Amino acid sequence: MKTLTIKNGRLISPVNGLHGDAGDIVVKDGRIAEVGSDLEAQGEVIDAKGRYVTPGFIDIHTHCYPKAFLGLSPDVLGLDRGATTIVDAGSSGSDTYDDFRSNYIDTAQTKVFTLLNISREGLIRGHELDDPAKVDVASAMACARAHADNIVGLKARASASVVGDQGLAPISVAAQTAHELKLPLMVHVGNYPPALGEVIDLLDTGDIITHAFHGKPGGILNEDGTIIAQAVRGRQRGVRFDVGHGVASFAFKTYQRAMAAGFDCDSISSDLHVQNWGGPVFDMATTLSKVMACGEPFEDAISKCTSAPARYFGLSGLGEIAPGMVADLNIVTVDEVCETVEDAMGERVVLDRRMRVHTTIYSRGDTSAVIDRA
Ligand SMILES: [Zn+2]
After folding, report:
1. Strand 240-241 with 329-342, pairing
2. Which of 22, 129, 333, 364 fits a disulfide with 170 by CB distance 3.0 to 4.6 angstroms?
């Protein structure tokens, strides 16, 4: 459809000064045309009374290349679950990107952006950085430059099983390559070695640590619960810290302690893939509810999966509620509940608030569509 009006929502987009006040949004030709109160209804009308209206979620860590290890199709991980934009975190490398692009990215309804793996094979077999021959800097740079409309950063995994006896060398190469391309590098951190602190020291302004709040040894906390010095220094020079829940990478206790130390996350992502979409991750709304249960304020949680990641990756037009922005929107509730959920360590926590995405409005070119989950 070309025109629709969302009436009486509680609009949430802190970067646009919207903090839950009642308002209406008129969508025309795939863009937000007007935001205000008592706007004249045009086209199809969606009544959002009593519900929040947020920008469509941007999930910056997913695995949506089905031919790669862990991959599921983009629309299963994106629009079906309330994320209007998803970023694939390194499933493809320069050898596989063309297939990913033409057969999955360009055919999806969900907007998909790519973090190109510094390993030329991407995540086809795992262990993708245990041999220098698996990294071809020239082909990675050529691929990123040829597809600058879609490749918004590079990705490397820095766990023991991935880098083998190569240690930090491939991560250092990835960082240098990303900096030369003037793109952010996202680094996955996991099983020690290397330790998180050593990885952070390789990163610079705009680079992102994902799985930053895992509960494994060598993580973000010192034994006394304070934040490791490398993370404090990293944040000072602009390194960003992402949740990336995943199957083994988000620990309630770690995040609660980090928040208590004043070190909250910069972005919230799911790391959704074939091993966790049926639990414990499920979707972004569940991940956001868990982060909120650790003390994250609701408005901050929304900013960290909308306007913040849009800014980090230069996704112009996305992640905000303002005239002229792309009309990707979610209608959500935050209900009082008493629900036990698990983190990635099998630790349980009781949610007292649960976010649900009832309706997703998304644009493709100059038209809009609505997914109603009631
Ligand atoms: Zn991942």
Report:
1. unpaired
2. 129
